[in-house]
Design goal:
Layout: E1 8-11, H1 17-29, E2 34-35, H2 37-40, H3 47-56, E3 61-65, H4 74-88, E4 92-96, H5 108-111, E5 116-117, H6 125-136, H7 167-178, E6 183-186, H8 193-200, H9 204-208, E7 215-219, H10 225-236, H11 245-252, E8 256-260, H12 268-285, E9 288-293, H13 297-300, E10 320-321, H14 327-338, H15 358-379
Helix pairs in contact: 1-8, 3-4
Length: 381
């Protein structure tokens, strides 16, 4: 891994992964490349080696503080990051994520440094501006003729961390799972699947009347092969050896397995093994699946299982599908993004005149915002 391949190393608790993924996507939209362990470290990599390589390949280190506190490795990770950063003269700072209380617990080293507050939301313009400033060393915003101060950060950049207009879909997910059924959440890229998962995550134990440790979250971008899948589940259940999965699943009474980015599952024979194994969890342990993908289960793996039904087919014949937002929800999303910016919502009314997926709407609004800002600068005397 070459030095300076990444702009920022993101240290985080795996329990906060949905928010971390959303934040990394927002940074990517701003042209900032973030280093995340589950995206960069292949299975079998020694954690210590991967950590050092990741920090050495990054220009800054952000320690993300979420509502779940420090993860099992994050204390060691933070200290190692501070030590390596001190030698490499890299900036290190804390970032408070949504859901953190008013008195976050920071290490002595981090509390003595300036930090970024994203508690108002991952799309908060002020917080994002400070985050970009901390990562790049340059404060965003260029002086525009005729303006008082720097141009505002585009409020439409990045996916929304909270779902807008998805109350009915959330109700359907809980209804399916409470009834003891599997559930499939389907939507094209940019429809808000990650935001919806992030919103329902803390509610799942209460809604289903189960313990939090009876729910395991797996992202298929982070696992490879059946053994990798079993290893990830065993690790989430507090075990070490993949061969112990059966005893751990039974002992913990695993009730729900959330499978994010199901389309990232291994293709071909390896993926078929994973799907057969997952189907068997319900038969053996009554473990239900919440499956998240861009396509319906009846077509998702058709290219890999052309001569036979996929083991996951039929698990949820009526999936929860994320349709484009209605026009009223589009207007609401735009108004939330413009709050405190000083721009008029009427400038974007035509973009809200038909149903749109959130990312499509925000992308169009971002282009409009930039044009409006450039027009104001160009018309200044």
């Amino acid at each position: 891994m070459a030095a300076d391949d990444f702009d920022c190393f993101l240290s985080h608790n795996s329990e906060d992964q949905p928010a971390v993924i959303a934040l990394a996507a927002t940074l990517a939209d701003l042209g900032i490349r973030a280093w995340l362990d589950f995206q960069q470290l292949p299975p079998g990599t020694r954690w210590q080696d991967g950590l050092e390589q990741g920090i050495q390949a990054s220009r800054s280190v952000a320690v993300l503080v979420g509502p779940h506190g420090a993860g099992p490795w994050q204390e060691e990770e933070t200290q190692a990051a501070l030590n390596l950063a001190a030698r490499g003269q890299l900036p290190v700072f804390a970032v408070l994520l949504p859901g953190v209380n008013d008195s976050p617990k920071l290490s002595v080293f981090l509390s003595n440094r300036t930090w970024v507050d994203l508690r108002p939301g991952l799309d908060d313009p002020s917080g994002l501006e400070r985050l970009v400033w901390g990562i790049t060393g340059a404060r965003p915003g260029l002086e525009a003729p005729g303006r008082d101060g720097p141009a505002p950060l585009n409020p439409f950049l990045g996916d929304s961390p909270q779902p807008i207009g998805r109350d009915q879909e959330v109700r359907r997910i809980f209804e399916k799972l409470r009834a003891g059924n599997h559930c499939s959440l389907v939507g094209p890229p940019g429809s808000g699947k990650t935001a919806l998962l992030q919103a329902i995550r803390p509610r799942l134990p209460g809604e289903l009347e189960i313990r939090a440790d009876q729910v395991v979250w797996i992202n298929f971008r982070t696992v490879s092969g059946l053994r990798g899948l079993q290893s990830a589940i065993v690790a989430e259940l507090g075990g070490e050896r993949p061969a112990d999965w059966r005893g751990l699943v039974a002992a913990r009474s695993l009730r729900l397995l959330v499978l994010d980015d199901l389309g990232g599952m291994d293709p071909g024979a390896e993926g078929l093994k994973q799907r057969r194994w997952l189907r068997g969890l319900d038969d053996q342990f009554r473990t239900k699946l919440l499956m998240v993908s861009n396509e319906r289960l009846d077509v998702l793996f058709r290219r890999d299982d052309p001569l036979r039904d996929s083991p996951l087919m039929g698990l949820d014949p009526l999936p929860v599908e994320l349709a484009p937002l209605e026009t009223g929800d589009c207007r609401r999303l735009v108004e939330l993004r413009l709050a405190g910016i000083g721009h008029r919502g009427t400038d974007y009314a035509d973009l809200c005149s038909e149903p749109r997926q959130p990312r499509d709407l925000l992308g169009r609004c971002a282009e409009r915002f930039d044009r409006l800002c450039q027009g104001q600068a160009g018309s200044a005397p």
